[in-house]
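Blinded run. Sample ID left blank on purpose so nobody reads anything into the name before looking at the predicted structure. Input follows.
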Amino acid sequence: MYADLNPFDALSNRLFAVLPDVDYLRLLPSMEYIDLALGEILYDSGDEMPYLYFPTTSVVSLLYTMETGSTAEMGMVGRCGVIGISVFLGGKTTPSQAIVQIAGGAFRIKSKTIQGEFEHGGPLQQILLRYTQSLITQISQVAVCNRLHTFDQRLCRWLLFIHDCLQTDAIILTQAIISQLLGVRREGVTVAAGRLQDAGIISYMRGHIQLLDRRKLEACACECYAVVKDEYERLLMF
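Blinded prediction complete.
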């Protein structure tokens, strides 16, 4: 069982939760709560970003689109992260796209505000840099995973990431979304999800996934999930 996340509470985002009180309270007036809709694009390739987004109950995919139009997910950001790291790293734009894969709540802060806070140094700068390192680890590990591991293992790893973001056993995701994000045909998703269902790990019907046995799901996943999770906890579980 998991405690329900409050989408309207900024402290549901882990980065805010680990900030010292004085820094959090200074940022609080700059935070704006918003609802993120499924499929909403937070930024596109080459866009400058007026805001950074801190999800509470939403999940955002970082996608790269090839010249052929094919897409694949490079990383995932939920309640443990922030969208828009190029703002405080000084790059301003990125060739990737950020799109909402699970609707829910988030807080946004103007880029100029975060830039100013970041340039002053202190705890927020340290937390954002540590998070960036954890995101680099995730993106790197996903690249290795996509090259070396089976789709069944990759799907298990991906579902574990989603579960960590949402803190709920009920996940709403269609085959079309999963196939687009993981770069496989829908038939492949059907077969892999069917095997997990037969093993009693999930139930899956018409875009509704119910996680039945997380321990078994972890056992079926490759080591990539643990690598990313352990690195995040090392860097940000103060």
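Unblinding after everyone has recorded impressions. The longest strand covers residues 59-65.
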